[in-house]
Amino acid sequence: DTEVTQTPKHLVMGMTNKKSLKCEQHMGHRAMYWYKQKAKKPPELMFVYSYEKLSINESVPSRFSPECPNSSLLNLHLHALQPEDSALYLCASSARGDTEAFFGQGTRLTVV
Amino acid sequence: GQQVMQIPQYQHVQEGEDFTTYCNSSTTLSNIQWYKQRPGGHPVFLIQLVKSGEVKKQKRLTFQFGEAKKNSSLHITATQTTDVGTYFCAGGRDGGYNKLIFGAGTRLAVHP
Fold it and tell me: Chain B within 8 Å of A106 (Cβ-Cβ)?
């Protein structure tokens, strides 16, 4: 299984809502990532988890809260988002910190 | 901070013509990876280059890593309509974490 599965595929939320994005991989990868991608732009790194510990936070606002419950799962909790946070949120994993990254299909988030 | 510049931003070709995209980093890279993202899709890993001066081929695709490990190129011979998409280079840094810095991407359009 070489898949990274993300749910939901689409999400519309209000600015006062709380929602969570989920990501799962069963490749035994020990590094997992959240990226944000705006239209016609490259993916921007948000968070890196290594061995289930947060190792990199790219100065992401606290309204985005990552969580890694175990080595296969990665969540991104969303609260009080702004319309400018609307984007494609991509999860990725890699076996080690310097090997290829496998991306999920993403969650297309719209904040209204 | 580390930046990865990628050109051109956009390229139109007729089917059968060749295509090249170039990446330059402001700092030495530990490795460089190339990804392809189809319209509406997610980034898909193509290849990783690690050694100075490395050249790798995948059918009609040729990837090069510069001697100084600061630049890279992807060349597609005789493009096909299936090559349509955005090609991203992503530079890795030393330290064990795959903090990939993505180039801006080159969007390839192939006209039959």
Answer: yes
